[in-house]
Amino acid sequence: MRPIVAIDGPAGAGKSTVSKKLAQRLGFTLIDTGAIYRCVALAAKRRGVAFDDDQGLAEIVASIDIRFRTDRGDNRVLLGEEDVSEAIRTPEMSMAASQVSARKVVRDGLLGLQRRLGQGGGVVLEGRDIGTVVFPMPR
Fold it and tell me: What is the DSSP string of 13-63?
């Protein structure tokens, strides 16, 4: 089995920069957990679900299809079959992602998705709580 690399830390610590370079060097898939929350926010906006509507957000999280792929060195984010890499990086989606990520139903619901994306290894997961909650180190 190939390893799972977890890059954890606070905002502004350089997680994204290090993760991208490491994934490229290792030939691993980069899984940006912040992008996952942004996808939930984008899906909620498109479906008209309020960012504090736990029931609506739970339905989105239960059915959301998010994948990552590398295209000529760029990490691309797919929501279903649509490449939403640019759509999720707007200031509006940044603010919306902060709102949905504060919802317990979203955090709990995405935990399983993050673990599935890392199954089999060969991935670099980047984001808060990756090494402590999503893939904690065995003691």
Answer: SSHHHHHHHHHHHHTPEEEEHHHHHHHHHHHHHHHT--TT-HHHHHHHHHH
Q: Under a CB-based contact definition with an 8 Å cutoff, are residues 8 and 15 in contact?
A: yes
> pTM for this one?
0.90
Paired residues of 66 in beta bridges: 79
Q: Which residues have a Cβ under 8 Å from the Cβ of 84 and sit 6 or more positions away?
A: 39, 42, 77, 78
pLDDT of residue 139 exceeding 90:
no
Q: How many CA atoms lie within 13 A of 20 on its CB side?
A: 10
At residue 99, the 3 state secondary structure works out as helix
